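chain below, 249 aa
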Amino acid sequence: MQSLEKSRTRKQLQLAPVEGEKEIEMALLSGMEFHSVFYIRELASQDLIQKLLKGHANIDLIELDKDLFAKISYRETTGGMIGIIKTKTLTLEDIQLPENPLILIVEAVEKPGNLGAILRTADAAAIDAVICCDLPTDIYNPNIIRSSLGTVFTVPLAIAGNKETMEWLNKKRIRTFCTNLNEATDYYLQDYKQSSAIVVGTEASGVSEAWVNYAYKNVKIPMLGKIDSMNVSVASAILLYEAKRQRGF
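prediction:
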């Protein structure tokens, strides 16, 4: 169990831990396949356990005492449950888009907490897909799952490289708006009602030159104070909700 905290082990075994009732429920509702569940009888939701049993006839239910459970858990507040899911390979070909999609492209965001917050926004705004380019960790990092509150399972996701994603966007005829401080127009002046992809990057260096050069338009959020950037999850929320506003939510 503890070995699954390492990205290499998760990839080798194609398994990942999901801690917490909310996160487990999101994974279950999204159709993730569960391999096993560790639980404390007096703390775990019996209703959720029954839901897991109903959907997974061969699931291993492993009851632990509080001391042993504490040793294997990654978090302090888990609701007395840790699920082990079978991971999926998330490719661009797996994404099913509507006729007029709105997509978020996240390039090289290194902090799991930021990516988790972005996924929560993407779920809240019902974005059609999130594409993670050059992701420094794997998407099943426990910190991403935790900070996303399980929306890592509810948002249509793909993991891909920059070049591959650009070719896919060309094929789908999706216009790209790239966040950039230089030679960019204010984000609210653009039209996102057509098929659109918004690209965000790291706070330290922003998006790469490849995306800046590729984009249909470069956009910026006006910075009215002393600082010249904001948290990438906040910037993503501002941009996505402007696009959704234009589309009438």
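The chain has a mean pLDDT of 94. The radius of gyration is 19 Å.
thats it, cya
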